[in-house]
Write a structure and sequence with these properties.
Dna Ligase, domain 1; binds magnesium ion; 3 domains; binds adenosine-5'-triphosphate; 6-stranded mixed β-sheet
Length: 418
């Protein structure tokens, strides 16, 4: 790991469908993160979270990282990267070993976790995270620290998040082609949740919806873990494309119309407000086209209704029922659309708030909006180190330095054979 005057550097890289962003941070003596630099480039060669052009995406990665390095005055060796496309699964494997009444030692935990490894059925997927969640002692559930207790039987729930291998390999390949190492690849909802949900929300139950440019990830968090995830191949870029197609304007103009005049809620005044835009291919100085805001709203609403319907179906499929008080937190760049939380609250029948990443010292305003939840969350995950068993990313499809200490041994035990 690169060093910054003795402090290890943490580098996060989020390869999205619309932008590639990088963040370099360090930790102070109290383990608080301090951002040294950030960088962003328009994403190329990424569609709905999947790499579709290695050369183009590698270029964007290199540029985003170089910008962050220039701003921070350091160079980095490896990154914590995100995976935000589909094909992510979340399961729980339960295993138990018979101890015969002796006092639980580290060796018992190691044995249990290695038994757990065999139980994890990823059926052709790559394990991104495997968290030994809670232990069970002689049928008593919810034990966090079993060492030192006497037991006949010791069990553990291992929470496993896995993804399809090919798209992960492509991300890994692109990063390595840009001459960077890969510390870990983290499922985007795991990272985003750390950045914009409170610990209490993650503990008591909350749904997180990350509305990106090309992908919308719906995830459930309970007991401090991600317990379910659905990926919807729709995003805010679809709205831009609809506007471009409906009015014959170029994408840049359509994006401006969406961000500046767009909203998820209509108003009677929309009929009287006229908006100008340039017709695609129009010569400079040519007459602009004029549309009413109501016409623009119709296009936006149409797509937002579709996306919200898919989110609703996703939440239902994940079993997000129970107390209506359990909120939905909306993040990702698409959540910056005006009034979208109000609109979704009406359709979903639950409290919906927009979740922006927690404030980090030194994080520039330009990189503190909802579009940067995953990026900030990657840094938080990296910084959380080995303290919280449930937040350790084990996913690594390449080599990784052996971790040390108690948790390190656990990770090693789990990782063998992955
Ligand atoms: N004010 C705004 N109003 C509407 N949409 C916005 C606004 N600001 C940003 N967006 C949209 O957010 C999207 C970018 O979101 P984000 O950066 O989260 O996506 P990404 O990470 O690049 O892509 P993905 O995660 O889907 O692969 C763009 O489509 C952009 O138009
Ligand atoms: Mg994203």
């Amino acid at each position: 790991m690169a060093e910054n005057s003795g402090q290890p550097l943490i580098a996060a890289l989020d390869i999205g469908s619309s932008k590639v962003s990088a963040l370099i941070a360090t930790q102070d003596s109290e383990r608080r993160l301090r951002v040294l630099g950030t960088g962003q480039r328009e994403s190329r060669g990424v569609k709905r979270g999947f790499i579709t052009d290695v050369e183009a995406s590698e270029f964007a990665v290199r540029e985003a990282v170089e910008l962050a390095e220039r701003m921070s005055g350091v160079t980095i060796d490896d990154v914590w990267a995100s995976y935000g496309a589909g094909g992510v699964t979340s399961t729980v494997a339960n295993v138990e070993v018979v101890l015969g009444g002796h006092q639980i030692e580290q060796a018992d935990i190691d044995q249990l976790l290695s038994a757990g490894r065999k139980e994890i059925d990823a059926t052709g997927k790559v394990i991104l995270h495997a968290h030994p969640a809670l232990y069970t002692i002689d049928g008593a559930e919810g034990v966090q620290q079993p060492i030192g207790l006497h037991a006949d039987r010791l069990g553990v729930d291992i929470h496993v998040i896995a993804a399809d291998p090919a798209p992960l390999r492509n991300i890994d390949y692109v990063i390595r082609t840009a001459h960077l190492g890969v510390k870990a690849i983290v499922a985007s909802p795991v990272a985003a949740a750390l950045a914009c949900l409170t610990d209490e929300e993650r503990e008591l139950g909350v749904a997180l919806v990350e509305l990106g440019a090309g992908v919308t990830n719906v995830s459930l968090h309970l007991g401090g873990m991600l317990v379910g995830v659905r990926s919807i191949p729709l995003g805010a870029k679809d709205i831009t494309d609809d506007i471009a197609a409906a009015f014959g304007v170029n994408r840049r103009d359509a994006e401006r119309l969406k961000c500046f005049y767009g909203s998820a809620m209509t108003s009677p005044r929309d009929n009287h407000e006229m908006i100008e835009a340039n017709h695609i291919g129009a010569e400079e100085g040519g007459d602009p086209i004029r549309i009413t805001r109501a016409q623009l709203m119709m296009v936006i609403r149409h797509r937002i209704e579709e996306v919200t319907g898919e989110i609703d179906a996703g939440l239902r499929a994940l079993g997000f029922g129970g107390p209506v008080g359990r909120p939905v937190v909306l993040t990702g760049g698409g959540s910056e659309l005006k009034n979208i939380a109000d609109y979704m609250q009406g359709v979903l029948g639950r409290t919906v708030r927009v979740g922006r990443p927690k404030t980090l010292a030194g994080l520039p305003d330009a990189h503190s909006g909802a579009a940067f939840s995953t990026l900030v969350g990657l840094a938080c995950l990296a910084a959380s180190g080995t303290g919280d068993l449930r937040d350790i990313a084990l996913g690594n499809i390449t080599q990784r330095k052996p971790a040390r200490g108690f948790v390190g041994r656990m990770i090693s035990a789990l990782k063998q054979g992955y």
